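== Sequence entry ==
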Amino acid sequence: MRVLGIDPGSETLGWGLVEGSGLKYSCVDFGTVKSSPKMPFSQRLAKIYAGLTDVIDRLSPDSLSIEDAFYAANVSVAMKLGQVRGVVLLLAEQRGLAIAEYAPRLIKQTVVGYGAAEKHQVGEMVRILLRLKDTPKPHDVADALAIAICHFHHAGVQDRIAKAISK
């Protein structure tokens, strides 16, 4: 299974592809789609769509795992993030990818063991779990890889439950 993790952002969107099965996985590739805050927002959305289209075409993921919406103090930021998520979800649907959404707290709990973990803690655990030489930078990439890792842990549990029920 190949899981494309997405940390949505309108200026820096992080992505990371993790491959494996069950709880055995490894990093395939990672990166960002960057947009200038000076660009009109619609152009940033188009750039995100084009950038992720390239990633999906090049890396052929089976599923997409994305950070679920969260409540932000700034309504404008929350709305923009929602629009970025909408573009990503639309693209995943168009490409026939399975989609999984995880709350930020669950991602941190799964990867670090603590739901209120700091960015550097997430990055370090991603480095350890994926056996990387260095912590992925920027943090948007580490977060995207953490989201993909989270999917491996939770999708595996769901598969085991489904198999147990079918027996």
About this structure: The first strand starts at residue 2 and ends at 7.
